[in-house]
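Subject: Sanity check before I submit

Could someone independently write out the structure tokens for this chain? I want to compare against mine line by line before I put it in a report. The sequence has 225 residues.
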Amino acid sequence: MSTLSNVTPRRGEVNPPSTRLAPDAFPEAESSKTGVSVRYAPAPGKRWYVFRVSYGRGNEASDYLVEDGTYTYIAKKIVEKYVRGKRRRYLKALIPNLLFAYTTEEKAEEYVKNTPAISYLSYYYNHFERDEQQKNPPLTVADEEMNRFVRATCNMSKHLLFVQPSQCHFKGGEQVRIIDGEFAGVEGKVARVAGQQRVVLSLSGIGLISTAYIPTAFLRRIDTD
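---
Independent answer below. Compare away.
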């Protein structure tokens, strides 16, 4: 099983997921090598760290962390290709070379600086902040924001997009919630992306995530007053 995937690969292929993420639940993290599973459990002292993984070894790094008891997430999407006239579906990282891990500061430091087995793992730094030494600190994502991100991407829809602000034409600044369809429960802002009405959410310090096309009837404005 792929990292935090609710589909089962078969020689790189996948079956489409059939379940949705519950409001207060995350899918399990599972090592593809050993079958070890780790469930998401909010805990004091733990934060969502963002790691950069070189050489396309995200799954390998995730396996190592999961086997060590650390919960991980790699956002993926289904990609369809035709091989010898037959349609095949594969999983591809939505945000290349990034791995999210829910862990402590001490454990994150150990992974990056004192674990030769994953020497290709490094911090993804927050370029919008500076610490006491005037250096950019490792980027972390707030729990609520990560929850929205996982909710939007856990179905691994082939229509998911990782986009830049210049690719989004926002229709006002209101927050909306999707109330039906495969993206039900996802919150963000309505924008026109790739010629379609979609809902876009932000992942601080990284970029924007776009859903598939969302009909207006599936949207409800969130009252922020």
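---
OP: Matches mine. For the report I'm noting this point. The chain has three helices and 15 strands.
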